[in-house]
Amino acid sequence: MTTFPKYIPQSEPPRPPWETLPTMYDLPSDNPEEPGLPDDFHFLQPLLLYLTFQPTNWHPELVYSAADLNLYYDVEHPLWYKRPDWFGVVGVQKLYKGEDLRLSYVKWQEPANPFVVVELLSPGTEDEDLGNSQKTENKPPSKWEVYEKILRIPYYIVFSRYTNELRAFQLVGGHYEPINLTEGRVLMPELGLSLGTWQGVFRDIEKLWLRWFTLAGELILEPTEEVIVATERAIIAEQETREAKQEAEQAKRKAEQLAERLRQLGVNPDEV
């Protein structure tokens, strides 16, 4: 009689943790008590705006911008603040009273309110950023209310990296009205600038970015791009100089050959 070994079911090997644990898409990136905390995009996009905010109508020493900095706005509630993803001011010094780096931007201690604010939409902040949140009694107003009614910021820009939608509002008669884009850009003649989207590489990342342009639509370069352009121009200038030198040498050789030919024919080239 033949005896067969008893079958013992084998358990599945354990799956690696990256297949079973939550991913970054599953885990919250926001603090419920303070939504809109920075992620990679909220760091890089404001940095790009900061590096290229160069109003042509203002001296560089009177242009200030900041990202993720507390903005205090209410003298009756001095602890209330908003934290724009990025904002730009003209008519103020880069240093507080010309002496110190700012810890925050305090309305009642500064000579000017922000001129333009950019908010980058997040799922946790969209309603407040677009003025759709319900007003709560004895609670701070929404960003929309602060920018429109209290600080009266002339330009309010909202950009979503999820839909690539750029929305812009301008203060008209005490309230925000949508701005029609011109060739995909928001024109701000008071600054000599426009703001629009640009597909390209910043900090080695290819995507659609929000960028500053001139009013005519010329891209304002950030420092790394300026170095690249300057290097390319230097290479082109060197090539042109080399080519001009080669052409001059060729012309000289031809002239010498012609003079020698004339001598062979009994003609003095110096007397021709």
Question: What can you tell me about this protein's structure?
Answer:
The chain is of the alpha+beta class. The chain folds into two domains: 30-220, tt1808, chain A; 229-271, no CATH class. It has helices at 17-20, 40-52, 126-129, 143-150, 223-264, and strands at 63-66, 71-72, 81-82, 86-90, 105-106, 116-120, 155-159, 166-172, 175-178, 185-188, 193-202, 205-214. Strands 1-4-6-7-8-9 form a six-stranded mixed sheet. It starts with 16 loop residues before the first helix and ends in an 8-residue tail after the last helix.
Order of helices and strands: HHEEEEEEHHEEEEEEH
Question: Based on helices, strands and strand pairing, what is the structural class?
Answer: alpha+beta
Number of helices: 5
How many domains? 2
Helix content: 25-40%
Coiled coil: 234-268
Keywords: Coiled coil, Endonuclease, Hydrolase, Nuclease
Organism: Anabaena azotica FACHB-119
Pfam families: Uma2
Outline:
The protein has 272 residues and is of the alpha+beta class.
List keywords for this structure.
three-stranded mixed sheet, 2 domains, flat, 272 residues, alpha+beta, 26% helix, tt1808, chain A
